[in-house]
Amino acid sequence: MGEFPGMNVNAAAGASTAKPWVGQSIPRVEDPALLSGRGRFIDDIGVRPGTLHAAILRSPHAHATIVAIDTAAAKQARGVAAVLTGEDIKALTASLVVGVKAPVECWPIAVGRVRYAGEPVAMVVAESRYLAEDAIDLIDAQYEALPAVIDPVRAMDPGAALLHNGFPRNTASDRSFKYGDPEPIFADAKRTIAITIRYPRNSCTPIETYGVIAEYDPGEQAYDVLANFQGPFSIHAVLSRALKVPGNRLRLRTPPDSGGSFGVKQGVFPYIVLMAAAARATGRPVKWIEDRLEHLTASVSATNRVTTLRAAVADDGKVLALDWDQVEDCGAHLRAPEPATLYRMHGNLTGAYDIRHVAVRNRVVVTNKTPTGLNRGFGGPQVYFALERLMQRIAVELKRDPVEIISRNLVPADAFPYRTATGALLDSGNYQQALARAVSEGGLEALNARRDQARAEGRIYGIGFTAVVEPSVSNMGYITTVLTAAERRKAGPKNGAQATATITIDPLGGVSVQVASVPQGQGHRTVLAQVVADVLGLTPADIRVNAELDTAKDAWSIASGNYASRFAPAVAGTAKIAAERLAGRLARAAAAGLNTESDDIAFAGGFVFSKRNPDNKSPFSRIAALSHWSPGALPEGIGQTIRETAFWTPPELTPPDDQDHVNSSLCYGFIFDFCGVEIDRVTLQPRIDHYVTMHDCGTILHPAMVDGQVRGGYAQAIGAALYEEYAYAPDGSFLSGTFADYLLPTVAEVPEPLILHMQTPSPFTPLGSKGVGEGNCMSTPVCIANAVADALGVADIELPLLPARLAEAVRGAEMAAPSGTKAPETRHGDRRLSGEGSAKVAASPQQVWAMLLDPTTLAAVIPGCHSVKKLSHTDFTAIVTIGIGPVKGRYRARIVLSDLDKPAGVTLAGNVDGALGFGSGKGRITLAPETDGVTAVHYRYDAEIGGKIASIGGRLLDGAARLIIGQVFAGLARQAGGDTPAKGGVIASALSKLRSLFGGGR
Amino acid sequence: MKPAAFDYVRAESLDEALDVLRNEGGDARIIAGGQSLMPMLNMRLARPRILVDIMRLAELRRVEPRQGNIAVGAAVRQAELLEWPALDRDLTLLSLALPWTGHAQTRSRGTVCGSIAHADPSAEMPLALVALGGEVVLRSARKRRRVAAHDFFLGVMATDRNDDEMIEAVEFPATNGRRCAFREVARRHGDFAIVACAAVATERGVRLAVGGVADMPVAREFDILPASALDGALNAFAWDLDARDDFHATARYRRDLVRMIGHELIAEVTR
Amino acid sequence: MTRMAAEQRHRIRFTLNGEAVDRACEPRMLLTDFLRHEIGATGTHVGCEHGVCGACTVNVDGRPARACLTLTLQVEGSEVRTVESLADRQGRLGLLQSAFRRHHALQCGFCTPGILMSLDALFARRANADEAEIRDVLTGHLCRCTGYAPIVRAALEAAAELRGETNREAVDA
Ligand code: FES
Ligand code: FES
């Protein structure tokens, strides 16, 4: 280990000049196993013989009543132990508690009604995942579609369909707040500048998906669950209640390794309920590993939000007051801990700025989308996209330099700790200095010159800026800000952020550390070894850290877990406290042995020694093991030195006060970013030319890991800014179901940022450090957006910045179609399909008419039609197999004819559904006689497709639909004795069934 | 996300493979590299009753000149063609387009013919075949027939191949010194093309082919024209492709790309 | 002609990391599942099962391959290598692995085995691979943690070492 001297060699005793381990980028203890395929992720861990595997049937509809679920065939299938529906789960569990006071239930599986595409409808447990999926295909679920509510603002319309009766107007919460005196300031302001933004849905989706292994012991009525859950462990209480057991009968453990989380693995918890219930129902352990389609469609999402933010602005650019109106979309269920995303930033709604007057209206709505949950940045991306776009607009409108506008408003350097208008206590910082250093070290002057040069050459280039305060260590009470003061009084106080750490000494003097930080790949074990090694005078290699959590054996609290960037500020500091306590007692034991006083004792180089006489020393292990071998030899009053558990919660985290001020987090780091972005004239792709990110996250414990967090967040933010969206069609169909549609940036899309640091220690944390993991998810999307706004001179920027969306702004109106070509109407993002066509059939209109209405002809005409049943002369059902290339599926179709105008025209309405999805639509067919007994058949259709096929095959859907419609008309023409229409064009049309056909089609 | 059950035949001879196709028709599927088919199996979009693995058939693993064409057998992997020594000279367009096909990790297994059989309208191999005016050699137990690229692709994932047939080889006309150009725009490198264009110099001008816009790659001949007339001709081509919106791109954006990239490529090959 | 019936297990033989494998599986068994759950070689990870994320990348006959897009029966007679082959039996990290560790080119490590196998295959075939080639190969992998820069640096350093431009002892595991 040449380049890390000292890693395995103890420094000389008494070398008080030895460099502390904390602050060094030592190699990680986690790496050798992970680099050699010896990681232990949840799906790597063996299970008990007899363990069953689960698969889940999910709703193809965004909103529908479940009419019937026939599980008989699935139950008979090979290897199946049980098939469970919502009713079965309901019988075994209780509803998940909901974070607002309202008469609503929240089940982990649909009960009676589905409210988002991908919601679990039934589950199969079988001997293997393969067999479980086979049986899923045999479940016959029938739905009656309901209108879907997708837009969060329209969800509040009086006429909108209701998701939950307990949420009138689909609104789960509507609270207004006033801090300072905003109204008169707005009334008097010479200038009010406003911006409205719609922050999209996205997720930091980790590469490892969810996994749960659950067992039930009927003898003790207790559950034992292993899940790659990341916390917060407040959810343990939610789970215990849902499983109807006392907390001590739900043992929840986490595996040694987790393949990333970024908040997302908090969302595994509803599946813990499902798998635990399945284990109970079958009497056998049940394992479930989520697949990627399930994950993208239905795991969890960050909230999308519609925000109108107004500022009263003085002539010099000083912001005098802010008025926030936020509409938060939490998806179909308000799952714990929501609506936390909305309130996490409540204390720092004024960002990095000194703004004393703030009005806030916060509404939380439900829509027919996947329920939301934790996601890196948690509320920050949404808030800063509005706030920092607004600052850019202020600069534009006042024709001033954005850096000047930001600087004018920053919290003064001498004001820390600074209490914000809404209640946060910004712990420390020097924002002006950070900004100045970023500007000079990041080369802003050169970047400005680069922009001027680019523009002079006719290129499209812009520069964006952001200043952000990054909160960390959440106050467990911030979420109660959603309640009124009176409701809070009734519910009892909630606050704090209890962290825990345990140090253990074994009989040979070896030191172990246990924490409840549930690392998700960040390297906690390495940093804890550094922290404890410094206190005990050892090397990190001497310390063994175990970060698996077992709620039955470990010290933990509701605040435990991996979220709110709490590791460095809270958990690492708590480990230090535990180590110091143990060191204090060991010092007294050593003092007795070395004949000196305990304050003369120091720990270094693997020895405990007298500071005055470093030769008077004893190996650490000898002193450390005393408590095991000879407890009687320890001086009076020391107690044991075998194990020390520290609990730490910061006093600054108090509950919200009666005026709704809340210190929502303990620490507030500072970030100042700027970037140059060029937009390609041909592809319109924004390319990040230069990105500078300055961070002040207090004391840095491991520089390489801090930079790793910055780069990782930055890369995810590039995804959010430019590529990633959980997109929904107006009917609630989910459109981003694969990694070919939900686009994570690759190495080619992530240019390296210039990372700068400044260290202003936090006075409130044991090590002076603050969180750093989430900041760039907050700062980078809006920084890029501001650069694009600067490049194009536009005010409205929508994320993700799809190149196609920029066409108008860059190029103006499109070159017209040559005369004779008909421009199709554009309906961007709309999944509705429409089209028309015509064909000539060698038969009279009467003959064609008769064919259209005759089941046997239809059966012959429709490709893959097994049977057509005539319910009445205008109402048919059919079973069809539709295939495009290798993609084949069997569908149930229903066709109803109306507006019969014999033999000139008929309207067909219909729907199909099957395992691959469903379709519905309407078409009008007209028949016009031509010469020679030929009939011109003309059709026009309008259809919608949903379900699996829409979420994973969207790109090819239109074309596949046209193809099947073409097949139908080819068949019709053939049947009528006409020519098979030639490739490509013809088609004729009619049948909306066809559309339905295709609906199921591909 | 596991495939539904299927039988598997590891064909030891071409006749064996053709026999299965004759007997099972539409319920059988050829698997070569599997890079298009396997995702569909895993997602259960496709559920064939039987898969026929043709990768052991030595006679299908050849790249060989045939009367002015270069024949690429059904078992030739994309990576193998990319390493074929004469590629730059004899299949210049392929040398430009292949690096855009998937990623190194899928080219290593995916075959050229498999991509063509799959007929994704955005894929590079079908585009190259259409741009060059190549042919597909189809084989059934009964006969062998040749279909021009232009007639082979019928729509999204739809081709002129009958259920009892398999692609035995595709033939690309050799470059013969003609200039070629290729350009693709995708959301990220390696994604399916939003628009991909290939241009090949011809006697009278340029053949420009476009993938990712219509339901299949479409080629059009352009005479050498003055710039303004070319603008009009490209605009007409762009509109004729009947571009659609999806959530990655708009129809207008696709037409813009056809016009702009079309211009660039035509200039490049007629320079 | 041998037709292997859907719901039966059929013999499969190949070489895994230099050792003979002789077992049986159903035709639809994915190579990922076979390696992980039948053999217990869990170093090959599963992130998407549709060929995009790259976590499952292994080497088949010297070329990188998505194990999730490979049927076990397809590798009959092949030489398969996985991440488990990269360190020696004493657990000493190989040169590429050591470079990853030095550069903090991994966080959660879930994407890492696939990336290592792609780079390993690249370096084996193209000893002089330059940065453009390295980056091109890396576009076939998704990493959600690192932002890629340290991965590129580690790969470049390993490439230079392999060319003998620098000399560094392997880091002890
Ligand atoms: S699991 Fe194979 S590429 Fe993602
Ligand atoms: S290290 Fe976590 S995904 Fe790459």
General description of the model:
The complex is a heterotrimer of chains A (1002), B (271) and C (173). Chain A folds into four domains: 43-146 and 204-298, Aldehyde oxidase/xanthine dehydrogenase, a/b hammerhead (Aldehyde Oxidoreductase, domain 3, Alpha-Beta Complex); 155-202 and 301-480 and 654-807, 2-Layer Sandwich (Aldehyde Oxidoreductase, domain 4), CATH 3.30.365; 498-559 and 566-648, Aldehyde Oxidoreductase, domain 4 (2-Layer Sandwich), CATH 3.30.365.10; 832-1001, START domain (Alpha-D-Glucose-1,6-Bisphosphate, Chain A, domain 4), CATH 3.30.530. Chain A is built from 24 helices and 35 strands. In chain A, strands 3-5-1-12-9-10-11 form a seven-stranded mixed beta sheet. Chain B has three domains: 7-53, Uridine Diphospho-n-acetylenolpyruvylglucosamine Reductase, domain 2 (2-Layer Sandwich); 60-173, Uridine Diphospho-n-acetylenolpyruvylglucosamine Reductase, domain 3 (2-Layer Sandwich); 180-270, CO dehydrogenase flavoprotein, C-terminal domain (Enolase-like, domain 1, 2-Layer Sandwich). Chain B has a five-stranded antiparallel beta sheet with strand order 4-5-10-6-7. In chain B, strands 11-12-13-14 form a four-stranded antiparallel beta sheet, sandwiched between helices. In chain B, strands 1-3-2 form a three-stranded parallel beta sheet, with helices on one face. In chain B, strand 6 (135-139) and strand 7 (144-148) form a beta hairpin. In chain B, helix 10 crosses helix 11. Chain B is globular and about 60 Å long. Chain C folds into two domains: 3-85, Beta-grasp domain (Ubiquitin-like (UB roll)); 95-172, DNA polymerase, domain 1, CATH 1.10.150. In chain C, 31% of the residues lie in helices and 16% in strands. Chain C has five helices and six strands. In chain C, helix 2 runs antiparallel to helix 5. The model of chain C has no long low-confidence stretch (mean pLDDT 94). At the A-B interface, helix 4, helix 8, strand 32 and helix 23 of A face strand 9, helix 10 and helix 11 of B. Strand 1 of chain B pairs antiparallel with strand 1 of chain C. Bound molecules: FE2/S2 (inorganic) cluster (2 copies). One FE2/S2 (inorganic) cluster is lined by residues 46-49, 51-56, 66, 68 of chain C. One FE2/S2 (inorganic) cluster sits between chains C (106-112, 143-146) and A (207, 260, 521).
